[in-house]
TrEMBL record:
This is Adenine phosphoribosyltransferase. One of its GO terms (cellular component) is cytoplasm. Pathway: Purine metabolism; AMP biosynthesis via salvage pathway; AMP from adenine: step 1/1. It catalyses: AMP + diphosphate = 5-phospho-alpha-D-ribose 1-diphosphate + adenine. The gene is apt. Its main location: cytoplasm. One of its GO terms (biological process) is purine ribonucleoside salvage. It holds the Pfam family Pribosyltran.
Length: 184
């Protein structure tokens, strides 16, 4: 096998499912990244090595429901820091703050426990994919409501043609992604 850089290696393990969940959609499926232990290690290490740097090192990782839990919890474990879930409305048992955001057809709400982060705590916000950016923006607003400092948003996949990564950067949230896909 020829030597691939991390970007190409990870990209080669992301499955594209045409016309799912609707005709014309090219769904980027990250589950093959998780199924192969070697590939999963490369994925996690790519994030861990970045966030070991003192200027980016978080105090806690916040993962967005649901695939952000998978990546975020393992990254937090490897960094030796805590993990907090940002869940869909109605899934957290304690007192929460919530943020509603717009979807293509309708809206959604995410919640965070009020004691999940402390004021000025450095937080890494992580998800599997950035499409329109709505979920990550909502998570960012929740963390800021509690006074946290979000050091960066991170995701495995960026779909730049949908505008989310640009929206995040324009709002002032630094974003780091490992693989970008255009519409093809």
């Amino acid at each position: 096998m020829p030597h691939l850089n991390v970007h190409d290696y990870l990209r080669s393990h992301i499955r594209t499912v045409p016309d799912w969940p609707a005709p014309g959609v090219q769904f980027r499926d990250i589950t093959p990244l998780l199924q192969d232990p070697r590939v999963f290690r490369v994925l996690i290490d790519a994030f861990v090595h970045r966030y070991m740097a003192p200027e980016l090192r978080p105090d806690v990782v916040a993962g967005l429901d649901a695939r952000g839990f998978i990546i975020g919890a393992v990254v937090a474990y490897e960094l030796g820091i805590g993990f907090v879930p940002i869940r869909k409305k109605g899934k957290l048992p304690f007192t929460t703050v919530q943020e509603t955001y717009e979807l293509e057809y309708g809206s959604a709400t995410v919640e965070l426990h009020t004691d999940a982060v402390q004021p000025d705590q450095r937080v890494l916000l992580i998800d599997d994919l950035v499409a329109t950016g709505g979920t990550m923006i909502a998570g960012w607003h929740l963390l800021r409501k509690l006074g946290a400092q979000v050091v960066e948003g991170a995701a495995i996949v960026d779909l730049p043609e949908l505008g989310g990564s640009q929206r995040l950067r324009e709002l002032g949230l630094p974003l780091h992604t490992l693989v970008a896909f255009d519409g093809h």
